[in-house]
Design a protein that fits this description.
Isopropylmalate Dehydrogenase, alpha/beta, globular, about 15% strand, about 40% helix
């Protein structure tokens, strides 16, 4: 299998140091070989500040990464910058964007088996010409996939959750819901759970939008008018889906044992329980793409960058998950 490609993210954030930490712990965690696109100097400085014994070795092609990985962190290309932890700037944003674009292209070409993206600063990237709300939307466009079919799933040891609507105001959520959206996202989720996570006959639980899942229309009619009919159509099509369930009871240990993934109606309905349960091991996975993409489910954390206290757990989990997904997808055909 081809190595994994890792984009460096904002070099002033915690991305470089947690990438370096993952390489330092590669053997104990059985990480698949990976290489970073750009930022050799940034990575070396981040490792030094963290007290890691790490050698960085530039490579000229992804195919060289596997031979280098055991002795050094492979870095593809000469792109670099002088980053100051906690102080994002235009040079760093340009490096982050070039790294993301190049890494994505390599995975699309099959020269890397999966993409792992370190955290970016969207405001900084916008100044460098990045016109997308986030990396998920960029990847959809790069892969020629309709933005509505690029599905964000947050995954950790305790929970997998998909927010049906993502980057919009809470007041806009009801108007964005539709039977078609629920059905399409649920089918993409079910296919990914089977193909990329090895779950036969995956079980999906759907949250209600309103308190008590609307209580028969007393607290809103979205459940009766939109969500329940979508669930019925999915069940008729053979998808193992239940709901709408009251969201306040859906994430208890007993409830989580009854499903493989939750389909939530809006951003915080999915992300609050995931981060409460699995913050240090949470992974952002993009479903519905022709490539495998994961990312740690946290931001750049500029406030702690360079202090040596950033937890590498989520980046480690993202690399592990990317390798597992790529292996399953290759076997699935």
């Amino acid at each position: 299998m081809a190595p994994l490609a890792v984009s460096i993210g904002d070099p002033a954030g915690i991305g470089p140091e947690i990438i370096a930490e993952c390489w330092a712990r590669r053997a104990g965690n059985s990480l698949a070989p990976f290489f970073v696109v750009g930022g050799a100097g940034v990575l070396a400085a981040a490792a030094h500040a963290r007290g890691l014994s790490l050698r960085v070795e530039r490579i000229t092609a992804p195919e060289h990464a596997a031979n280098v990985f055991a002795r050094a962190l492979p870095v593809l290309g000469m792109d670099d910058c002088n980053a100051v932890p906690g102080q994002p700037d235009a040079d760093g944003a340009r490096l982050a964007l070039r790294s993301l674009e190049h890494a994505t292209g390599l995975v699309r070409e099959g020269r890397a088996s999966a993409l792992v993206t370190a955290p970016i600063a969207k405001a900084q990237l916008a100044k460098a010409g990045f016109t997308y709300p986030g990396q998920t939307e960029f990847l959809a466009a790069a892969c020629g996939v309709d933005e509505s079919d690029a599905v964000m799933m947050l995954a950790g040891p305790s929970l997998r959750a998909v927010p049906l609507t993502v980057h919009c105001a809470l007041a806009e959520v009801p108007s964005r819901l539709s039977r078609q959206l629920i059905e399409r996202r649920a089918r993409i989720l079910a296919r990914a759970l089977e193909r990329d996570f090895g779950i036969d006959n995956p079980r999906i639980a759907v949250c209600g939008l309103n308190p008590h899942a609307g209580e028969g229309g007393k607290f809103g009619d979205e459940e009766v008018r939109i969500i329940a009919p979508a669930i019925a159509a999915l069940q008729e099509a053979g998808v193992d889906v239940t709901g709408p369930h009251p969201a306040d009871a859906m994430f208890t240990p007993r409830a989580r044992a009854r499903y493989d993934a939750a389909l939530a109606m809006y951003h915080d309905q999915a992300l609050v329980p995931l981060k409460a349960l699995d913050f240090d091991e949470g992974v952002n996975v993009t479903l519905g793409l022709p490539i495998v993409r994961t990312s740690p489910d946290h931001g750049t954390a500029f406030d702690i960058a360079g202090t040596g206290i950033a937890n590498p757990g989520a980046m480690m989990a993202a690399i592990l998950m990317a390798g597992d997904m790529a292996t399953r997808r290759a076997a699935h055909g």
